[in-house]
Amino acid sequence: MTRVTSIASNTFREAVRDRVLYNLIAFALLMVAASLLVGQISMNIERNVVINLGLTAVSLFGLVIAIFIGIGLVSKEIEKKTLYTILSRPVRRWEFILGKFGGLVATLVVNTVFMAVGIFAAVFYLAHHFQRADAYLLVALYFIILQFVMITALALLFSSFSSPLLSAVFAFALFVIGTFAQDLRGFASLTHGVIGWIAIAAAYVVPNFAALNVISSVAHDQPVAASLVLYNTLYALLYSAAAVAGAMLIFERRNLK
Amino acid sequence: MPTFVAMPAIETFGLEKTYTVGFWRKRPRCALRPLNLAVEEGEVFGYLGPNGAGKTTTLKLLMGLMFPTAGSAKILGREVNDPQVKAQIGFLPEQPYFYDYLTARELLEYYAQLSGVEARARSRRVAAVLERVGLRDVAGVQLRKFSKGMLQRVGIAQAILHDPKVVFLDEPMSGLDPIGRREVRDLIESLKQEGKTVFFSTHILSDAEALCDRVAVLHQGELRGIGVIADLTSSVRGKVEVIWQGGVIPPAMHALSAECHLIGAMARAVVGENQLDAAVDALRRANLKLVSVTPVRASLEDYFVEKLSPAEVAAR
User: Minimal CA–CA distance to A66: which of A99, A7, A96, A106?
Assistant: First the structure.
């Protein structure tokens, strides 16, 4: 496990030194601008707008980081041959994959925590106090982190057998499709026969990001059911575990030319 | 009384690698034909061959970075992917690249963690190896500011950091200036003194001749020859060098040898062994003083060239 944590902490260090966390500056500027602007032009919906904008920004910033770093997690190491001096040590291939995954997820969690502080600061700036409904923001942020875990796992899976460009296309396409996963499942249930089975299978293989998006309801102060938290947690963890296991299996037999 | 048979440090058994090339019409390309090789413990073994001979492929197979199409390999008597083996080997890839956002010290500490070096010994080990490769003064500098030669030293440092029993070096002198090459040679010598097994690939024959106990010559993925350096370079090539005093070359000597040269007051000719008597007679008749008669010995370069093109040599 020491080797996995070493690889994870080095991946985190790489992200920090490659100035990935500089996106926080852009996010901070966005939140400051939004707070000042919304306070001037809207009537009683400032909170709603700031939360919507803030959570959407957290989601998009993190998505970009997860995809663009995730796709290079393995392929960049192969291309630059840095992997050679890692795998010639007593490091198993699955440990490398797990370490890289853990490192990027840790980067995204830290990034999200800083952004969450920004959102709460903006909410406090507008209302001059916190209210009970603000706690729902934490659930929305937690779901966003679960989305990042899934996207990172998928990017890693694609990165284990494909080029960075194709990996990025696959991961982004899956994110877009996954955003409409509920609709896909609805359409699939309308079809019949063999095609119906295939459509249903495809709809359930696609990651269901729609279920993890509660930004709108949280912005309207609607609570999130505990059962949804439990279901989404299990779903995201199982889905990510399957994707990471797939990446490990593919990478285990890959020739590093 | 039981007898102990020394176990080879590195062994390959019909190790073979074939790639598939082409997109639509896939066709096989053999990078390494069945390779049977044994390198003894404590040996410095040179793996020679021109570019594209299959040297790096062999090293990647031995490091478990690639999987063989057929055959197998063992290091220290175990399968190459055994973590216990990996803890006892060091590897310097060709033209190594490292995480350039790290300093030399950070990189080596990271590798030390991965190699299982105990936490309390880590800093001491890293400091010692930095000193050994001459990078102590730049230990805190990010690798992106290092020259190619300095990166090669970092590469060597990471390969020997965990005190491995077997060290694999892929073109270790590549990109180094004469002083850097000399330092790497000294380092390989010192590894030999410590009883390490060193397997290094190169196409610089003078390095191999100076350092290796044995060499193997690889060409087009095929092992063309293997032997002890001393034997390879001591084989007599059926010719003798005759040196005499007096700045003249007798006409009879010209008739015997195309290779006649005047060197100041001395002269030199290379003749066939069967022509030696006639050459000495020619000198005697011309009243010239014979200085020496020496068999012409093969150099590693001769051996290398011969192994690369056997058909051509046979045709001569």
Answer: A106
State the distance between the two ends of chain A, measured CA to CA, in whole angstroms. 28
Q: What tens digit of pLDDT does each residue of A174-227 get?
A: 999 988 888 888 888 888 888 888 888 888 889 999 889 898 888 888 888 999
Which residues, in sequence order, are bridge partners of residue B240? B271, B295
> Domain of A31?
2-252
A74–B contact, CB cutoff 8 A: no
Q: Which domains does chain B have, with CATH numbers?
A: 10-232 (3.40.50.300), 236-297 (3.30.70)
Instruction: Find, among B77, B43, B45, the residue nearest to B59 by Cα.
Output: B45
d(CA B186, CA B256): 45
Residue A257 lies in a domain: no
Task: Report the complex ipTM.
Answer: 0.85
User: Residue B138 carries which DSSP code?
Assistant: G
For residue A14, list chain B residues with Cβ-Cβ distance below 8 A. 99, 101
Contact B201, B60 (CB under 8 A): no
Structural tokens at position B111: 């590798």
Residue A233 pLDDT grade (very low, low, confident, very high; cuts 50, 70, 90)? very high
Q: What is the pLDDT of residue A83?
A: 92
Per residue in B132-151, pLDDT (tens digit) is 988 999 999 999 999 888 89
Is the pLDDT assigned to residue B2 strictly greater than 60? Answer: no
Best of A87, A88, A107, A163 to substitute, by most chain B Cβ atoms within 10 angstroms, is: A88
Q: What is the 3-state secondary structure (H, E, C) of A22-45?
A: HHHHHHHHHHHHHHHHHHHHCCCC
Sort residue B76 into left (φ over 0), alpha (ψ -120 to 50) or beta: left
Q: Does A88 contact B115 at a Cβ distance shorter than 8 Å?
A: no
Total count of domains within chain A: 1
Pairwise CA distance, residues A128 & A123, whole Å: 8
pLDDT in tens, A43-72: 667 788 888 888 998 998 889 889 988 888
